[in-house]
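Work Package 3 committed the consortium to producing structural models of liganded targets before the mid-term review. Because experimental data for this complex are still outstanding, the team generated a predictive model from sequence and the ligand definition alone, so that downstream docking and mutagenesis planning could proceed in parallel. The input record is reproduced below exactly as it was submitted to the modelling pipeline, together with the SMILES string for S-adenosylmethionine.
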Amino acid sequence: MPNDAQIDIWNGPSGQKWADQSSALDGLLAPFASSVLESGDIKAGEKVLDIGCGAGAMTLQAANIADGKVSALGVDVSEPLINLARQRASQTGSSARFELADASTFSTQEKFDIAISRFGVMFFDHPASAFQNIRNQVTPEGRIVFVCWQAITLNEWIMGPIQAAIPFLKQTPTPSDPNAPGPFAFADKDRVYGHLSEAGWQGISIEPLITELTLPGTSLETTANLMLQIGPLAGLISEQEIDPKPVHQAVVERLSKNLSSDGRVRMDSACWIVQAQAS
Ligand SMILES: C[S@@+](CC[C@H](N)C(=O)[O-])C[C@H]1O[C@@H](n2cnc3c(N)ncnc32)[C@H](O)[C@@H]1O
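The resulting structure, written out as C-alpha cells with the ligand in place, is given here.
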C-alpha cells in the first residue's frame, strides 16, 4: 500500500518521540506556524485543513484565529500524535478537530477554504497524486500554504550535530535518494513545483524562508539531548547502534559555538514557503 513505510515510522518509535518531545518541538518550530498562518491570511468563517498535523499545534492556533470563528481539522497518520492533539484540544476547550487519516486518500463531504501544513507533506510515496487529493478537498477558490525543508546541507541546526557525530559513527552516512519520502524530499523546488502543477494547482509560488532557530533547552546538555533524539542524527545512532554518550559530548561542544548570551543555542535553518490556488 502507498505510504505504508512512513505510516509505520510515524506509528513507531519516531512518532512516539515526536509525541514525547512535542512541547520542545512546538517551541522550535513556532516561527514556521506563524509564517504559514500569516501567509494563509485566514479569515473568520473559513475552514482550514492541516495536513500531517502531528500533535496539532498549528491546527489549534488556526482554530483560534478571529476569536475562534475558524473551523480547523487536522489529519495525520500517526495514532500517538493524533491522540495527543485530541487531548490538547479537549484540555484547552478548542474547537479544533483531529482525524487519523492518510492525507493522500482522505476525503470528506466538507470542503475547505485552505489547506495548510508545517512540514507534513514531504512523506508521500506519490506526491502529485496526494496533492491532487488535497486539491479535491478544497473549494474551487481554495488555496494551499505549506513549509518544507530546503537541503539538509543548508540547515545548520541539523548538519552541525551530524558533523559532530561523524567521528563516532561506524559508517560514514551515504547520501540517500534525495526524492525518497522524508523530511528533505522537497529540497528541490523545481520538483515541488512539478508535483503541485501535475496535481492541478495554479499560481504556484515557492519562496525561500531563511530563519535563525532557537533550539529547545536552557542548557547545552538538554539541547544536545533533544538533537540526539529526533531527526537524521537519531536515525544514525539507532541504525548503527552507536553509544550515544561520546556523541552527546561532541554535540555539546558543537552547539557551544552557537551559544548566545541568554544561554540559548541559535542556528540557521532554510525552508521553502509554498503557496498555490486550487484553480
Ligand atoms: C515532521 S512531522 C510534522 C508534524 C506537525 N505538522 C508539526 O509541525 O508539528 C510530519 C507529520 O506528517 C505526518 N504524515 C506523514 N505522512 C502522512 C500522510 N500520508 N498523511 C497524513 N500525515 C502524514 C506524520 O505522521 C507526522 O506527524
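Reviewers should note the following from the model. Residues 22-40 form the longest helix (19 residues). These observations will guide the Year 2 experiments.
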